[in-house]
Input
Amino acid sequence: MAYPQKLEIFSDYIWPWCYFITGSIERLQKDFEINIQWTAFPLHPDTPEQGRTLEELFAGRNIDIDQMMDHLRQVASQLGLPFGERKKTFNSRLAQELGKFAELEGKGDEFHKAVFNAYFVDGQNIGKTSVLLEIGESIHLNSKNVQKVIRERTYKDAVDSDWKRSYELGVTAVPTFLFNHQRLVGAQSFETLKKLLRSNNVNKRNL
Output
């Protein structure tokens, strides 16, 4: 159902803090008359198709990867989200393009959740066509249409437009929330997002 007000979220499937807000977003959708718009953001667009190890990703930075992953697992546990072992990062571009198709098919929320799970829980390469086909099938998208979208890059321009919008608005970190010209950067709690909506007189849903 379309509502008069929209919360835009700049996000990339490969960033854990984008995954960590998904529970809060689900609660917002249940509690408030709000439209959620996911805008694709290019976090590491130069990642090769085969992926890149976390050691390669953070090379030259003083980061203890094991300690970082332990912290992320703790955060996920506190949020009630599963979080598996992962040694590599992968390119999210094709997943973002397929996400646009899923949204038009009315399965955007299911697709976003499935991609986050494939990446953060199962450690799958979401840049591979075979993985994206499995994700599409898991949420009952038409397999032939999914193959066509990936093969023909049907939604390339749509994601290009999202990336351009990110640059034009000066978005440099995800998640970034945009609502009525107000901006919040970083993984916000449900209470913070609820306060933002209430301060802008967004109606609660009649449950």
